[in-house]
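Researcher: I'm preparing a figure for a lab meeting and need a structural model of a single chain. I don't have an experimental structure, so a prediction will have to do for now. The sequence is pasted below. Please return the structure as tokens so I can convert it later.
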Amino acid sequence: MWHRSLWSMVAVCAALLVISLHEHASAPPASASGVSTPRTAASTPECRSADLSADYRARDAAAGHRYGVVRLRNTSRRTCFVQGYGGLSYVGGGDGTPVGAPADRDPGATPRVVLAPGERALSRVSETVAENYPRRTCRPADVDAFLVYPPDATRPFFVEHPTTGCLDESVHLLSHRPFHG
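Model: Understood. Here is the structure written out token by token.
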């Protein structure tokens, strides 16, 4: 008689386990890193320029180089994602005239970064100081700002960043990495 009760209890526990697994399998796993899972990413729209703001934060400097990050912040009321490289270049002349070559892309993983309202994605930026090059080669010019394009966007942001660039496009002063969380 006791084994009939034991088998009944085992059957009930197994049924509850199956029901529990079924209910929780449909929910996407949480991610502390901000990188979404495939299920979340499929239902989350890509951020548009209208959803974002951009700024730059200097981080460090060493031997003719400066380092910092371009930050994209989700200013919308909806969750969206960014993935990959944006565009980055110097502009000057007070009117957004390009100064020199656009940023080179440093290799790196391109995670899909899901941004809830208020959250940020970062792209590391490396700048070589224009004074490292001979004046004749560089042809120095004043820079007013970075021109920052979010990934897959056509509307850029002007992010104030006064410095000196090189008009000669064979001189590459900028490089950046993909956006990450």
